[in-house]
Model the fold of this input.
Amino acid sequence: DGGITQSPKYLFRKEGQNVTLSCEQNLNHDAMYWYRQDPGQGLRLIYYSQIVNDFQKGDIAEGYSVSREKKESFPLTVTSAQKNPTAFYLCASLTRDRDTEAFFGQGTRLTVV
Amino acid sequence: AQSVTQLGSHVSVSEGALVLLRCNYSSSVPPYLFWYVQYPNQGLQLLLKYTTGATLVKGINGFEAEFKKSETSFHLTKPSAHMSDAAEYFCAVSDGFGNEKLTFGTGTRLTIIP
Done:
C-alpha cells in the first residue's frame, strides 16, 4: 500500500542534542513538507521541498535542517539551536497536478527531557 | 500571502444535531481549499477539497462544504452529528497548481454531547 511513513512515533531528546526525524513516501510525489503542531496553534510549516535536491524554508525554519537527496525521503533534523523543540511533527507529501491532495504521515512526538 | 481563519477553537454539538465549522480564507488568486480531520496522536486525513468546478463539495463521513467566493468562506457542515465525529478539524488553503504550499488554520476541536 502506498503511503507516508514517519519514524519513530515517539522520540526523546536531551538538551543540546541533535535528532533526526524520518519521513519516507512511496507515492511518487514530487513535493514533501514538514509541519510542527503545538496545541492551539494549528500546523506551522518548517521546510518544504518541491523537487529533489531543492528545499525552501517555511515560516519557522530556525533551528531545523532538512535534506532531499531522494524523491522518497525528506528527513528533518532538530538541532540544538531549536530552543523549544517539544512538539508533534507531521510530514506530508503531494503530487503537483491539478488533483492535488496532501497525504500525511502519522506523526512523531518529540519530547525534550 | 494566503491565510485561513477558523472561528471557534472549540465547538460542542449534541449527537444528531447539525455540525457547522467555520472557515474564512484570504488569497490573492483563486484558491484551492481543504478540510482535514485529525484524531488524537494521528496524522491528518482529507475530508474534502475544492479546486475548481462545483462550489458544493461532498466528502467522506457525510461532511460537505460550500465555497463562497463573495464571502471568502468554506464552512464545513454535517446534518447529523455522530459520536465518532469528535476530533480536531483543520481548514487549509493553497494558491493552487504550481504553488501547492498549504497554509492551515489553527483548528477547531469538535466535541459531541451524547
Observations:
- Chain A has no helices and eleven strands.
- The first strand of chain A starts at residue 4 and ends at 7.
- The interface with chain B takes residues 4, 6, 31, 33, 35, 40-45, 48, 50, 58, 88, 90, 92, 94, 96-107, 109 of chain A (CB under 8 Å).
